Amino acid sequence: MATNPPKKTAAPAKKAPAKKKGNTGKAGRPAGLFTWVTIGIVVILVGVIVIVKVNQTTSTSKTSFGPVSAQVLSEVTAVPTSVFNTVGVTSPDIAVNTPSVANPTSAALNWADAEGVKHPTIFYYGAEYCPYCAAERWAMITSLSRFGTFTGLQYMQSNPNDSYPNTSTFTFRYSSYKSKYVTFVPLEVEDANYKTIATPNAKEQAVLNLYNPSTPSQGSTFPFVSFDNKYILLGSQYTPGALAGLSHDQIAGALNDSTNLLTDGIISASNYFTASVCAADNNQPGSVCDSPGVMAAKSAMHIK
User: What angle do CA 179, 303, 236 make, to 5 degrees?
Assistant: First the structure.
């Protein structure tokens, strides 16, 4: 059973993945030929059933777990301002990476939103199976909710056979986002079972070619974020291992607690993410971009 995220007064809980045990059984000598044949047939049938079951449970994963509950949605999209400001970029237990400055000669994205209005654009490129995307989405959602409103978010877990299996997260596949400050363009290109569900359009591919090109031996990096080509993020800001064994309810429920070690990691990442958004949209709104938590992130990133 998963435990709640640890507070600062306790060492973080580490749960090692359970090891699979091999099947064991006993062999017996049948009383006669008929019994031997019968047992042989039963063993073959059972073996076939086991093989089918194993293949089903190890190679597939649910692609969606339905709409996010009202409680979790509120907890992840309405983190108290006091938590952002108290945490700042202080994360003593979880190392947090920052976005980096993009090429200053790159043209701003400034793509239109769903209503055709152009704004500085946050472009996200990821996949549902990806555990690193799973971790980053917590910081993304808490950050972007300070600039606008999400609808249609759905529960998701990363692939059970990948690194950091079954990491609790969300998917942007069915979501929409409305903001008067920025346009958010999320692109989930593969589902939880590695099946292609979307491909970049010409504009999106041009950004990927510039900052996240695919190579013959390896595809593009997940996750990737362009902050209107002012800042970019390649990879997650913190390890998915920080979320190991925790449910959506447990992670979201801790986000109002600035003494929680996991919250420190997510909120530090979120403040860095927010500072990058502010750098892209000319520091709007001031109530967010000039807040103490975001100013701490700006100072650490040398953003003026």
Answer: 65
